[in-house]
Structure formats: structure tokens, C-alpha cells
Amino acid sequence: MAEKKKMKTTTKKTAPAKKKPSPRKKPPSKAVKTTPVSKVEKTKAMDLTNGSSGFYIVGMGASAGGLEAFEKFFQHVPKNPGVAFVLVPHLDPTHVSIMPDLLRKYSEMKVLAIKDGVTVEPNTVYVVPPNKDLGILNGTLQLIDPVAVRGKRLPIDFFFNSLAQDQRDKAVCVVLSGTGTDGTKGLKAIKDELGMAMVQDPDSAKYDGMPVSAVQTGLADYILPPEEMPEQLIKYTGYAGKKVTPGTPPVKEKISDALPKIFVLLRHQTGHDFSLYKKNTICRRIERRMNVHEIDKITHYIRYLQETPHELDILFKELLIGVTNFFRDPEAFEILKKALLKQFAEKPHGYAFRAWVPGCATGEEAYSVAILLRECMDELKKNFDVQIFGTDIDSLAIDTARAGIFPASIAEDVTETRLKRFFVKEEKYKVRKELREMLVFAPQSVIKDPPFTKLDLLCCRNMLIYMGAELQKKILPIFNYSLKPKGLLFLGSSETIGGFTDLFKAVDQKWKIYQSTPVPYGAAGVPVIPAMTRKYEAREIEAPKDLPKPLELNMPQIVEKTLLADYAPPCVIADQQGKILYLHGETGKYLAPASGRPRWNIFDMAREGLKLQLPAVFRKAISRKKSVMAEGLRIKFNGDSITINLTVKPMTESKSSEGLLMVVFEDVPTPKKTPSGKKRSGSKKPSEIQVEVLEQELQHTKENLQTTIEELETSNEELKSTNEELQSTNEELQSTNEEMETSKEELQSLNEELITVNSELDGKIEESTKSHDDMRNLMDSTDVATIFLDTELRIKGFTPTATRVVNVIQTDMGRPISHLSANLKDVNLAEDATEVLKTLAFKKTDLQTHEGHWYSMRIAPYRTINNVIDGVVITFVDVHDQKLAAEKISELKNYAQDIVDTVREPLLVLNQDLRVQSANGAFYNTFKVSPEKTEGELIYNLGNHQWDIPKLRELLEKILPEKNSFEDYEVEHTFPKIGRKKMRLNARKVVQKTEGIELILLAIEDKGR
User: Was domain 34-243+702-765 assigned CATH 3.40.50.180?
Assistant: First the structure.
């Protein structure tokens, strides 16, 4: 609005104590109270069960650095928040996004990649796929193929606009980290539909371009770090989602009824009057503050304003709307620079150049003007005494402007050459002293404070658009008064001079650069406002310092030559603005000093009767460029009326007199009365004379009226033509602005997509790195020699232990395995690997090195995650100790068997199932059985069950389990082939602890028949 072009937020949570406060932060609003998530979860269900208006849909936009912000946000969202989340990050259209997989680690809700036509459900997170624009219709998500080329798309704005139109007051937008401005326009659409807007605190954003742009709109309800957003979001949905009572009048109507009371409170608190500002804008701001504080009645909000002066300060900040940055609309500044160069070329060295930047906010535009002026002086190699006044009604913004310190982000708007020339790079950019000394910053209001005067340049951009028509009509004449003749007025791209075409002449219609046109104010005098009158009427009583200097030409000769040629009456030489330069003769009958401050202006000094006609005759003479006469003018002098003829003639005698006019006053004699009241012969009656005078005045009035009508018709035609040109210019400007904005953000968009992809890949790489580390540690801990070969049997990788088996070093990467020598006997690795690639079957064998060390070699196909064969893997497991142990065991077994075989008595070795493990030769010879029919058989089944002896069963199944051994048990049995035998049995259980096997040694002593 008025004179504020950069604004921070409505409500911001208090930062942690350890964090240094940013100069951009506003004090936390006392009305905003936070609720722990645990409590919000309990109240959230109440909103969902009232069945009045469904659930909220939260659109979340992010670009560069957005993945980190998403993770922090969803770490603090409960499992059932009662709202749906739709994520629209900037994604590379050619890259498959893995964002849903990454976010599932941080959210307890369902995280889904959006499919066309899916219906939005609460407690779900939806992520847009790459190369798709996203819309929403009746609660269903629609995927749309983008028309705009890569880099010119604004997918976040597109979805926010769609969300606003579809969900209206149930729409919520969240703008997170990113570069550029995507999301700003969509945020405005959300707010226009009474939705809610949250923006990441720029201080917490990895890239603050998008958050800063969104904050500068002045529409953000909450500015918080991502981790604090969920709590406030659920609290808001719990309040704002309540059903509105049917039949309740719109809030805006209530607000408009109460605006005068709010204006009174604001004026009392701040001293500034907003009553002439645009009402719709003010109503929206007030309504937003009411929603933030959960106030549903305007009367309650007025009471809150009365009880909380701090809220009045915040509302005051809310009404100061605007966006500012260095060299906004660069093309406009280039056109301004050309106009300034032309103006500077006419000025002498040391000229005092004065400029005024009202509504300068934090000073970016004022410093931009200073840079431009400095560059103009450098190009012309002239040095002027430049003084620039930067004013604003926001004292905090003025303090920032005075400091002259700006963030590093200004590099986006200021060229590298200008940054080096006019700024000092520290942590931020600081304005150099030579530039800072050109500016004076001060709090000032163009509405109530006197303006700066004698200006060569007045830069007022995007301030008038927030003012009502009545206020604009007051301010533009003041701007004309403040400027010197031909001084430049630089307005914003959406502003215009309106109907004041007589005050300003267009220098560039497209970029709204105008030149002051001096216009005689006539009886109206200089345009003033009450504050100006109060300030100046008692102060400026001394003679003005800028009284016109004598003409630097031979004025007497020019006057005498003209007068001798045509006239000899009194006359005045004046310029086209009415400034008196030379007087000739007795002009006191026609001109008189006006009361108040002395003004050497013929229009101000004209006597009654001449004051109204003189400006019209002046304009005719200037436009026609020839002499114009007005006859029979009656003016008052010394209490009587005299009749004169007035002639205004342009002076063209020499170049030095061009633009000057001669005003000649000629008395018209009136008839005299005869003595004693007698009439002279042939004289007219007084009544006849009076009629003639009246007829002359009437005729003169008719002529003036006709002239005025003609001028009005001409002005109307010119105005109509100007309006048509203005409309055409506005359309061209709008188209040009869109093209420029799209071109500006094209590179940003490409960069954002790359950063988003990099963020996803960083997460994937981190996982892969961890998995790689785990795998490497696993392989190192197992001490397994491994070699990886590609499909052409070239080495892709190997573990350090592989060097013990194959003579391979790091420089052998990429070499065929056949080029290397293996420290193995009787093996051809290349042939074995080729066989595995052909058959895709594993191959395993035990090998021995030339030093006699044993390894178990295993060759297997190398399969990717997509089940594609991409080579082979050869592993060598060290089995040397196992081989030695096996050989030793074999030797021990042979040794034991040799001992058993040397025993002269029959001996059996049984397992725990009473099956024969082995027997000695004495057993086979004594009982006439063979090893083939003995080993592995149940003892009771040997030789046609000849050992199925009840006594033996009792010994083996009852006595041996209890005592683990028995000795000298005599058994007598008749065997089919050898007859009756008397035997003495000895048995003992033997346990093999390593293998967990129990064996029974059964010795049979033959006692004869």
C-alpha cells in the first residue's frame, strides 16, 4: 500500500533463544498460541466428525533444498492429522523421482506417487510425478501434460490456483525452500479464496528465494521453520474448520461497516490516516488478522485492537504493502538513464541535482537511483552535487535503508560490475561511502507532510495503486509542484497519471516516465494540502531565493523595436509559465502583487476581470504561435472599472527570445458626460452605453465559451486517443512482463530441478554408501577373496585378500583375467568363468596354491537388481585348516580302525540306534558274515536275525542306558551256521562331543561251545 514496498509477515513464532534475531523478523504476535501436537490430535477428531465441511487439503511447494524441508516437516506430523498433503516439488522431467521412497522414512502416513484421477483422502501424502502439471477437480487429482517448455513452467502456482478454485476456504498452501518466485501468485489465489498460507522462515530455508518472495506479498499467515509448521497447521484447521452459522452476513461486509472505527484507532496509535486508501485491500488485511487470532466478529476484533496496542502496530504493518528490490524492471531503468543523460548534458558542472523517492521502504530503489545518477555523471565526465531524499512512513524500514546493508541475494538483481563498483562484500553487501553520502533517509508521509521541492527527479513506484482515486487526485498535483519544469516523474508499471495530462508529458508511456509540464494555476494557486499550509504560512515570509534573474539578452532593444513597430502601451515580457521577466510602462492598473508569499507570476498578479481571461489568451497564443487579442475586457482599478484590450504575442525576433511572450495592455476610452448633466449632440444615452457594454461582454463571453468548447472537444479527442494508446500499452506491458518473468525464471527452474534431483540422489547415495560400507566390512570380516569380472571377463573389482590367490593389483582394473597368473595348481580361471557364463550354473571346487595352501573356489553369475547377468563373481574361501583337520581325522580313523582290526576278539561299533557302524575281521571270521551285509544294519537283523537274542536286547536297551557300560555278561546262543556259542559280552558308550553322536563298543569274547 502507501509508502511501504517491502513487508514481513503477519505472524511469526519466536525463534530459539540461541538464534540471533534477523532484522527481517517481526515481534511474535501474542494472539497466536501454540498447542502441543498431542493435544491437537485429540481435538482434531472433533473437526472431522462434525460433518460440516470435510477436511483441509494442504498444497506444499518447494524447489531447491525442498527435500530437507519436507523431511523436517513430516517428522513432526502425527499419524492422523485429519488433512491431506499434496507435494509439488520442482522435478527434472527426464528423471525418475525417488522422493516418495525417501519421505516414507519420515512420515507415519501413507506416501503415494500421484496417479491420474486419484481421490484425495485425509492422512495421506501425495507426491506429483515428474514432467506433469497437477490440478484438482472436485477433490480428485488430475495429471496434465505441460504445454510450457522446460524451465518456463510454474507448477506450484498452477496447482495452488487450482486448489484455491476447487477447495476455496479449505485450501492451505505451504511455500518451502527454493529459488525463484514460483508459488507467490498461487499463494495470492489461496488468500483471495479465504484460504490459509504458511511460508518457511527464510532464515531456516536452504534457499530463501521462494520464501522471501512469498513473504513480500504480505499475505503469509504464519512464517515458521518446517518443524514448527505442523503444530500450527493442525491448530488452525481445528478452529477455521468450524461450521459457519447459516445466514451469517459475509465478513467483508461487517468489516467495511466498521472501517471508520478502525481508522480512528490506527490514526490515534500511528498518526497515519488510511481512510482514503482502497477499501477492498484493507478489508482483506483485517479479515486475515481476524482469522489468525481466531476472531469471528469485527466488534470483537475492534475490542481486541483497543486492548492490545501491539496488534494495532501489526495491522499498521499489514497495510503497508509492496515489493521492492534493486533495479526492478531493468528496462525501465535503462530508459530512465537515457532521459537523465539528456537532462545532465544541459546542466553545468556543480549543478545541484535533487531527487525524491517517496515510499522507499528499505532503500533498494533509492540506492538504484543513486547508482544510475553516478553512472550518468561518469559517462558524461561531469560532477554534480546530487542529493536524494528517501522517505517512508515505516521508521524501521528507514533504519534499514540508512544502514545500507543488504543480503547476498541482491546479486540476482545487481550486475557483478555494479556490485564491485558500489558495494563492499563482507558477510553481506554494504553500500560504499561515496554512494551513501548521496542519500538522506527520513520518515515522511506524502499525505500529511510537506513535500520536497525544486526536484529534478521524483521516483514513486507502486505506491499510488494502493490509494483511492480521491487521494491520487491530491497527490499528483503536489508531485507536479515539487518538480522543476521538465523534471522527471518515474512511476510504477501499473500506475498512471490519470487525467492530469496537463501536468505531465509522457517521455516513455510503456515504462511510465513523465516530464513535468509547468501549468499556470491561475486563481487556484499552488496545490497544497492542509499540513503544507500549516507548515509554510508562518515560515516562508522572506523574499524567495529563486527570484528570476535578469534576462541575459538586450531586452530593452527588443522591447523598443516591437513597441515602435506596433504599440506604445504598457507591456510585460513573460515566459510560457507566466513568470515575469521584464516590465515596460505603467502596469499597475493591470497587475498588482498578490497577498502572501511574493510571486513574480503574471497570472497571480492579474487584477480582477483579467485573471480569468489572461490564462486562456496565453494558451491560445502558445498553441497557435501567433498574436491573440481579447477586446473589451473590464477590470477593476481604484474602485472603478476600466476597459482594455489585451494582446499576447509570441516573440520570435531572436533565438534568445524564443518561448517568450509579450503581453500588451491597451486602454479603451469611454464616453464622457457633458457638464450640468446635459447630453452632447449625437451622444448616446447611458442606458444605451450600458447595453453596448453588456453586449460586448456577452459577445466576448460567447467567444470565450466557444473557444473553451473547442478546446474541450480537442482535449476529449486527445484523451480518448491517449486512453486507447494506454490500453494498448498496458496490454503490451503485461505481455512483456510475463515474457520477462518467464525468461528470468527459466534458468532458475532448470537449476531447481537439478538441485531437487541431487537432493534425492544424495539420499540414495547415502543409503548406497552405507550399504557399500556394510558390505565391505562384511567381506573384510569374512576374509573371503573375491574377484568381480564383467561379461568380457575383465576385472571390475576385487577384495584385498584376493591378492593372495591371484597376482592382481589396483592398476589391473579393466584387464582380462586371462592376462593374470593365478597362484593355483591345475586351474584355468578364464575357462571356468566362460563355462559359468554359458551355463549360468555354479561351479565349485577345492584348489591348492603352489605353496600348498587350500582354497574352495566358487564361480557364480553376477546378477543385477533387475536380474540381468553382468559378469561373474569368483570367490576363494580359505579351507586350509579344514583340509588339514579332515586329513588328521581320516588318519585318526584309520589308526583306530587298525587298532580295532588287530584285536583278536570280535568287536562291533554301534550307533545310538543300535546300527552297526563297523566291525573287525575277527567278528566277520567268527560269525561267518560279510561287511556288506553287516555295516548299517540293525544288530538284531544281522544274519537272518541271529543276533536277536533276548538277553542281548536287555543288555543294550535297559542296562547300558542306565550304567553306560556293562562287563562280563555271559550269553549263550545257537547260531545257524556255527552252532551253539557261549559268549562273554563287554560294552561301553562312547560320546563324540564335537559331533554330538553316541557310539557303543561291543566286545564279544568266545567261551567255546
Answer: yes
Task: Give the contacts of 394 (CB within 8 A, at least 6 positions apart).
Answer: 3, 4, 317, 320, 361, 443
CA distances from 558 to 43, 562, 663 (A): 93, 6, 14
The pLDDT assigned to 523 comes to 36
Q: What are the residues whose beta carbons fall under 8 Å from the beta carbon of 284, sequence distance 6 or more?
A: 191, 192, 252
Cα R_g (the chain), whole angstroms: 51
d(CA 960, CA 518): 133
pTM (predicted TM-score): 0.40
Grid cell of 476 as nine digits: 499528483
Backbone angles phi, psi at 303, to 5 degrees: -65, -40
Strand partners, 849: 824
Cell of 51: 460433518
pLDDT at res. 3: 39
Class of domain 555-670: alpha beta
As a 3-state breakdown, the chain gives helix, strand, coil percent values, each rounded to 5, of: 40, 25, 35
pLDDT for the residue numbered 549: 43
pLDDT of res. 648: 92
Among residues 787, 847, 798, which one has the least CA distance to residue 823? 847
Q: Is 14 helix (H, G, I), strand (E, B) or coil?
A: coil
What residues does CATH 3.40.50.180 cover in the chain? 34-243+702-765
CATH number attached to the domain at 783-878: 3.30.450.20
User: Which CATH code, of 1.10.10.10, 3.40.50.150, 3.30.40.10, 3.30.1380.20, is assigned to 330-536?
Assistant: 3.40.50.150
Query: What stretch(es) of the chain map to CATH 3.40.50.150?
Result: 330-536
Q: How far apart are the C-alpha atoms of 265 and 678, rounded to whole Å? A: 76
Name the 3-class secondary structure at 686. Answer: helix
State the pLDDT at residue 141.
94
Q: Where are the extended beta strands (E) located within 90-147?
A: 110-113, 124-127, 133-137, 140-144
* The one-letter amino acid at 293: H
The span from the CA of 970 to the CA of 968, in Å, is 6
HEC sequence for 726-755? HHHHHHHHHHHHHHHHHHHHHHHHHHHHHH
The boundaries of every CATH 3.30.450.20 domain in the chain are: 555-670, 783-878, 896-1006
Measured CA to CA, the distance from residue 388 to residue 411 in angstroms comes to 23
CATH domain 896-1006 topology:
Beta-Lactamase (3.30.450)
pLDDT at 357: 92
- Dihedral class, residue 625 (left if φ above 0, else alpha if ψ from -120 to 50, else beta): left
Question: Residues in the chain with pLDDT < 50?
Answer: 1-53, 243-253, 322, 521-526, 528-553, 673-681
For residue 99, the model assigns a pLDDT of: 86
Grouping H, G, I as helix, E, B as strand and the rest as coil, residue 111 is strand
